[in-house]
Q: What sequence folds into this?
């Protein structure tokens, strides 16, 4: 084990002790009302890992942990809905102190199965960002899920070649390492080329794609009727920094129009796929008429100064225990 890994594990153990939780409580009490700060949580999947062999695990939170986190935020923050934030920016309506917004990216089926029942029971509003080419197209699978699944299911005598070198897949650790390298490589390529490359790698490993995991339109319409806000997340989930300016605009607006067509209405809100944004992308969104857009970059937003098209979020994944989340929601851990 490397020194960094040892230190990381030691830090994680320390954070998850009762003494650290007590320390956090003291800090939180000192934070006061914080009228101008907005925290936005990002989730992807709420599912038990045990139910999902070969599925990309890092974006997954168990239903038990999710419920614990939601009970905490319901008690410690004022959970607002996306319409509240729009009214703040458009009409100048004030937000309560300690405002917090709950968002989910990618519209995975487990949102409806596991997350929404918990949110509903606790009376918490949520926003789901939908890549709109995926609902009702079970053959379309997110590239990271396809790649992770292919590497996890490949025979152990197989290897995978890439411009970064050749990766053996003998052990689970080697498969994880291969996935991390290949994922980083994919993000450097133009979107269309990246998707072709992932397809080639997966085909060379000869493993079938994972089962479909995105909600269909009927399920999305039912969620809207029950109070969920949907938001645009492009159609095909490209990194917006890896497509031409025309395609950026098209992906964003098509996604909005798909939501309008399928659900009757759509708010001018957007989440950048995988957080891919730069000044040009933000400008395209501004010109296209979007009012709010969300990054994946970590941070707490100061409503007096934040760019409403570059709102930062706090990502919650499988390593985020409640003390880690509470720590991340602290101002001094913010970017
Ligand atoms: Zn996404």
A:
């Amino acid at each position: 084990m490397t020194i960094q890994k040892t230190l990381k594990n030691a830090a994680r153990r320390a954070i998850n002790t009762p003494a650290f939780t007590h320390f956090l409580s003291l800090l939180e009490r000192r934070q006061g009302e914080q009228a101008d700060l907005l925290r936005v949580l990002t989730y992807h999947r709420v599912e038990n890992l045990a139910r999902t062999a070969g599925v990309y695990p890092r974006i997954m939170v168990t239903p038990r942990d999710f419920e614990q986190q939601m009970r905490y935020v319901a008690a410690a923050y004022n959970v607002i809905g996306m319409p509240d934030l729009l009214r703040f920016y458009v009409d100048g309506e004030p937000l309560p102190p300690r405002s917090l917004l709950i968002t989910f990216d990618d519209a995975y089926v487990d949102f409806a199965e596991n997350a929404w029942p918990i949110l509903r029971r606790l009376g918490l509003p949520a926003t789901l960002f939908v890549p709109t080419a995926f609902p009702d197209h079970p053959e379309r699978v997110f590239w990271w899920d396809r790649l992770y699944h292919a590497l996890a299911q490949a025979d152990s005598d197989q290897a995978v070649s890439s411009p970064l070198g050749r990766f053996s897949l003998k052990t689970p650790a080697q498969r994880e390492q291969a996935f991390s390298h290949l994922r980083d490589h994919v993000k450097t390529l133009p979107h269309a080329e990246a998707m072709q490359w992932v397809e080639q790698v997966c085909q060379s490993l000869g493993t079938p794609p994972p089962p479909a995991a995105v909600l269909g339109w009927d399920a999305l319409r039912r969620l809207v009727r029950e109070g969920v806000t949907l938001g645009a997340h492009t159609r095909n989930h490209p990194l917006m920094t890896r497509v031409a300016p025309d395609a950026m605009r098209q992906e964003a607006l098509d996604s909005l129009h798909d939501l309008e067509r399928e659900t009757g209405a759509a708010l001018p809100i957007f989440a950048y796929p995988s957080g891919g944004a730069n000044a040009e992308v933000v400008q395209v969104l501004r010109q296209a008429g979007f009012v709010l857009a969300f990054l994946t970059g970590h941070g707490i937003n100061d409503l007096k100064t934040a760019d409403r098209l570059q709102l930062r979020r706090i990502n919650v994944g499988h390593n985020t225990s409640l003390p880690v989340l509470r720590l991340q929601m602290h101002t001094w851990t913010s970017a």
